[in-house]
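tool=predict chain=A
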Amino acid sequence: MKILAIESSCDETAAAVVEDGRKTLSNVVRTQIPLHAVYGGVVPEIASRAHTEAITAVCEKALSDADLTMEDLDAVAVTNRPGLVGALLVGVSFAKSLAYRYHLPLYDVNHLRGHIAAAYLQDPALKPPFHALILSGGHTFLARVNDYTDFTLLGTTRDDAAGEAFDKVARVLSIPYPGGRELQELADAFHGDEFYALPSPALKDNPFDFSFSGLKTAVVNLAHNLAQKGEKLEREKLAASFAHVVQEGLVDRVGNVHAEEAIETLVFAGGVAANSGLRRALGDFCEQNGIRFLPVDVSLCGDNAAMIGAQAYFEAQKGAPAPLSLNAIPRAEVDE
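tool=predict ok
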């Protein structure tokens, strides 16, 4: 089954052709980072307009790279939740038009499920059940994947996502957006043995949930207090301190889940999952505890349409196509 998938939930205009949920025939991503960098983050209106300008060419290239035409396809799939509503609507409207014009079934895909499904493209032999930790710019959660379309949300962030925290701390360190990679490089360059005191994102009142809002605020307050005292902010030390508490917090949450229900395989995906420090920390924990660690390849961590096409295949096996009245839904969890 060959599926043309479309992804436009945030600031990447993407299209891909995926076969049987596990083979990528093409994967095209047009980033908008240069458009948003000047503002220090994604501007929804700009994102929507840029999707409108790019989506036709991106889909045409996805078909060309796969050496296919619309007549060769079996279905069209699109992310319709969650995400920026204006950005989602561009992809949903375009996908519905294609499905109607070429008489193809249309499948709607939850973006969060797509991040997990990226693992099927990396390891075609992977089958549920397994566990997944997803970290992205807008989402942070732990889930049990019971089946291809059956998920149990185990823990999530109460406020901000990990990606938002990385971006905020990067701004404090005067690192341009997106700053996660450079922030980790600063952290890796620190060779001291003392960190700045920062709160953990691992909540004390729940063994599985996260909170990054207090951590963000603590970093901002630390920087302001040092400036008021006329003391120098050690950039490498702050980056390392932040990275340290985030790594410890994530390992703590995974450890609690493992103690509760014995993780056999842990998939690590989402844009922030490209972070080398987090991959090392989680990989070390999994190795020490006999857990198979499956970090999604960096090329599939960020928003892309191949992961949407992978999940769409399994949604198609379990349910009916979406109606042409399909709409965009800005908020949804992985189990919705």
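The radius of gyration is 20 Å. The first strand starts at residue 2 and ends at 7.
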